[in-house]
Amino acid sequence: PQHLLGRVPRCLRRLMGGLAALGPVSGTLPAPDASWVPHAPLWGNPLVPCPPGRLPRGAAAGGLSLLPVQRGPGPADGGGRLRGLVGTPEELMRAVRVAIGRSGVSRGGSGPWFDASWEAADLHHVGSSLPEGWYQLVAGLVQAQHNAGQFVPGPLERHLHSDGLRPYERVPSVESRGVECMLVRRLGWQRGARQVPLVGLTVRAATALQLGPLRAERRRYVDSFVQEVGGPAGQASEGARRVWVNTVFAALRQLWKVRWDNHFKEVYWRLVLNGLATSARLHVAQPCGVCGLAPGPHGQLHGRLHHFWECPVARAVVAAVQQQLPPAWCVSPLLPHHVLFMHRPAGASPATTVHRGVWRVVCLAAVNAMDVGRRAAASQQRAAAAEAAAAAAAEQQQPGAAGGQRRIDGFFQPTPLSPEQQQRRERVQQRQQALQQQRQQEQQEALEARLEEVKREAVARFWELLQDFVVVRAAPVAWLPALSPDHPLLRVSSGLEGVRCVAATQPPPP
């Protein structure tokens, strides 16, 4: 009960708060038996939920503590004063018998209540909310003891028959403590297909329970990423998808442990969780700001697969990586799952297989280099949207455009043109068409030049990140014995003394 929490030690209160953060517990009740039902706890028992129809308005779920109190018509009438004195179904039945016996006593406040009839109604309300068969079982046991002359009034009856001036201190019996321990052993949390018992809770299991919803949400994002990049259902087997999902999770776990700038890792983390600004993410139907590719015929917007694989900028980065992989180290061309899922390609033999950690660093550098193209496309789209908005504003400010006004020459009657005027008009139209074609050609050349510039910038960014990884000596010491001098992209030369990891080949000249 709430009035007893102040007496609980601080360490136990913190423990109770930690258990409450894990969510509601669940369990199963044993079959109703006279050996434990009379001594079962009433208040705060998660195995005795309150019926939904009897909960107060706005309460979603809870135990018997949330039951509304039966109130009478007058200000002094009402029950609920005896609830805090009972703790088990047997004590509840004993209080009901005393309240029924004193129902004829006038209301004067001489006892621990004002109106015994409303107290009896309130206690009956609590008893009827117990699980099926509990109240009838306890009532039958108490009545059988009374008929056999074995019913002995206890401290509760003596307090209820008193004037109520002395405080009543409830002392749990040995039987009730044993039943509480039995019920606690049946409590636990559901984690997937298995149940974590309360008595066997460990810090590891509690952490898994607390982070369970977050991990499920993260798993949903990774599944969506694998489905978008790996292709629609049918192109890859279910087993391959599970392998790719596990590969992404393993790559994220290892990369966050590598002592490298977290800013580089955040790009891949946002890519997996669909947190990067793309046309599909922002629901903006615009052509790609770098390659000029228009949205799909069915309204498909450019998403992660375009900016990090299909765009020419991304393809240039993949070509730079593919160029550094000899046929012995990569027997097939690189596919999206090799780079975006960090699933290392197969080599001709185990000795010529790219190191798993090095491949993840290479893919991380490639993703950051591809992000150069995405950011350039977003910048170009923002500039185009600003120009379109400025042109629309200038058009609205033209005279005669507002209010639906017409130009004065629009009221003139058209007259047929002479042959000289017709020829002049055709020459003007030809010049306008030629000028428009020239502008389109210049725009296309500027777009191609911009594309080549972004491609060179992205490839340079890839090599710059690899050089940075080498310079800061971010490679773990455990990787170094596996990096032979002929290892592609990153290698170890001149022994392990200097831990000198260098790029296998330098970036191509611009």
Structure characteristics:
single chain, 510 residues, mainly alpha, two-stranded antiparallel ribbon, two-stranded antiparallel sheet, 16 helices, 4 strands, 3% strand, elongated, disordered C terminus
Can you describe what's shown?
The chain is mainly alpha-helical and 510 residues long. The protein has 16 helices and four strands. It has helices spanning 10-20, 89-101, 116-128, 134-147, 155-160, 174-184, 203-210, 212-230, 238-257, 262-272, 279-282, 304-310, 312-323, 336-339, 356-396, 419-471; strands at 188-191, 194-197, 490-492, 501-503. The strands form two sheets. The chain has a two-stranded antiparallel sheet with strand order 1-2. A two-stranded antiparallel ribbon has the order 3-4. Helix 15 (356-396) packs antiparallel against helix 16. The longest helix has 53 residues, at 419-471. The radius of gyration is 39 Å and the shape is elongated. It starts with 9 loop residues before the first helix and ends in a 7-residue tail after the last strand. Mean pLDDT is 82; it is low at 496-510.
